[in-house]
Amino acid sequence: MPNHFHFLVQQLGENALTKFFGDLSNSHSKYFNIKYETVGPLFQGRFKAKKVEKDEYLVHLSRYIHLNPTDLFSYLSGNLLEVFLNYPWSSLSVYLSRTNDELISTDIVLSYFSKKDPVSDYKNFVVSNIQLKSDPVINDLTFNE
User: Fold this and answer.
1) CA–CA distances in Å: residue 4 to residues 54, 89, 106, 123
2) pLDDT the model gives residue 87
3) Could you tell me if 11 and 5 are in contact, meaning their C-beta atoms sit under 8 angstroms apart?
4) d(CA 125, CA 142)
5) Mean of pLDDT values over 10-14
6) How do residues 29-58 score in pLDDT, each as one tens digit?
7) Backbone phi, then psi, for 37, in 5-degree steps?
8) Is the C-alpha dihedral spanning 128, 130, 136, 138 positive or negative?
9) What is the CA radius of gyration of the chain?
10) DSSP string of 79-142?
11) How far apart are the first and last CA of the chain?
12) How far is 126 from 82, CA to CA, in rounded Å?
């Protein structure tokens, strides 16, 4: 996505997310601008966050984020899941491979799926919505400009 990004994070301290994303955005912009001899912000608009207050929203939001680049891939034919799995700026491959990652914890989201095979269940959950443009369960969590 050329002008924004999505994170699903758990806030552990007061205003921790605002500080983290402000520092991340500023540091990344400075690095990019120095490297490519440009100036100004890199992303459209200001940092936005919404609190997830229902368990149901958490799993749907995870799926929404993993499928958000659908428009980027709409011109592709073939297996969209393979395209998503190979998309380098997504954590979906970590969720579906259960590989260890020091930045990504899949345990919370996957805990809402079967104990027997949560990865397969999550994969089916994601794939079931791969062709849709939106997820109606989380419409009130998204930002409409």
Assistant:
1) 25, 12, 22, 25
2) 82
3) no
4) 19
5) 88
6) 999 999 999 998 887 777 788 888 888 889
7) 50, 50
8) positive
9) 16
10) -HHHHHHT-TT-SHHHHHHT---SS---HHHHTTS-SS-HHHHHHHHHHTTTT-S--GGGGGGS
11) 17
12) 12
Contacts of 101 (CB under 8 A, 6+ apart): 91, 94
Distances (CA, A) of 8 to 33, 108, 109: 26, 11, 10
| Cα–Cα distance, 12 to 15 (Å, whole number) | 9
Which residue bears the tokens 């050329």?
A: 2
All residues at 6 or more sequence positions from 121 whose CB lies less than 8 Å from its CB, including other chains: 113, 114
The pLDDT assigned to 71 comes to 63
Token pair listed for 128: 């079931």
